[in-house]
Each structure stands twice: as structure tokens, then as C-alpha cells.
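Quick one:
INPUT:
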């Protein structure tokens, strides 16, 4: 059965490739989007993609998942560590999601080691650079397939 996975990206991820490349690598978000959509095609999964720098827009994007997406791949970036509003939106829609991060948030500053979202996720992929998206997407597609 064809599935729809929505990929949601939070603040500053539009700067990937130029932003702190030692931490986040040199791959741009557009390149990650291209690779993820290509993988989606081979898996027969529909993939939609958004990036926003605004917390409210991320909340609305999550609210809009209801009835539209079977699952979501979410890199909430800094909102991961701070946003009760993003957490509440995920609790409200109850769409299965995988949390992804390019860097290993557990190996970074103490304030990044806490995720407001992780306990609600099907799983978390963190620390594999751009590959975190591929791994998370494949794992989520397989999870949705098995349900
Ligand atoms: C990030 C990790 C966050 O701590 C940070 O605020 C980001 C990116 C990552 O993908 O490694 O913007 O989510």
C-alpha cells in the first residue's frame, strides 16, 4: 500500500551546508531533500517536505498531518530542546514519527541532550549527518509497512 511520509524541518536547517559544517556537514537541505525523495520513490512512498524557521508554522504543519500523512520524519532542530508547543501538537495528532538529527545531540552541550519529543517518537536517529534522514525515512517506511 502506498504511504505518505511528511518530512518537517525546523529553524536554521535552511542554512545546512554553510552553517557550522564541522557539526552539520557540507550537504545542503536541498540535497538531502532530493536524496530523500529519490529513496521515497524507490520505496513507493509519497514524500512531502517543509522547512520553517517559525515555531507556530511548525506547530501548524504538525496539526495538518492529521488525516493527510501516515507518518512524519521530524528534525525540529533547536525546538527539539525547548518547545512544549511542538510536543503538544504531536500529542494532539498522534501521527507516528521518527525524530532525526544530523549531529549526535547526546554528545553535545547539556541543553541539547534533552529532547522534548523523543519519548513520543517511534524512534530517534541522531549523529549520522545527512544519512540520519535516509536511515530514519527507511525505518519509518518499514514501520508503517508492518502495521
Ligand atoms: C539539530 C541539533 C539541534 O541541537 C540544533 O539546534 C539544530 C540541528 C541536528 O540536526 O543535529 O539546529 O537538530
Amino acid at each position: 500500500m502506498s504511504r505518505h511520509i511528511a518530512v518537517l524541518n525546523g529553524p536554521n536547517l535552511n542554512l545546512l551546508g554553510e552553517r557550522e559544517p564541522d557539526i552539520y556537514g557540507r550537504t545542503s537541505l536541498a540535497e538531502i531533500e532530493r536524496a530523500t525523495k529519490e529513496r521515497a520513490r524507490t520505496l513507493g512512498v509519497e514524500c512531502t517536505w517543509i522547512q520553517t524557521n517559525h515555531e507556530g508554522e511548525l506547530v501548524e504543519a504538525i496539526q495538518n498531518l492529521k488525516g493527510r500523512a501516515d507518518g512524519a520524519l521530524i528534525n525540529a532542530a533547536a525546538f527539539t530542546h525547548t518547545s512544549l508547543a511542538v510536543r503538544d501538537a504531536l500529542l494532539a495528532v498522534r501521527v507516528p514519527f521518527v525524530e532525526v538529527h544530523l549531529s549526535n545531540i547526546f554528545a553535545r552541550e547539556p541543553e541539547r541532550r534533552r529532547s522534548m519529543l523523543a519519548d513520543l517518537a517511534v524512534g530517534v536517529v541522531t549523529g549520522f549527518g545527512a544519512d540520519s534522514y535516509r536511515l530514519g525515512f527507511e525505518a519509518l517506511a518499514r514501520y508503517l509497512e508492518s502495521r
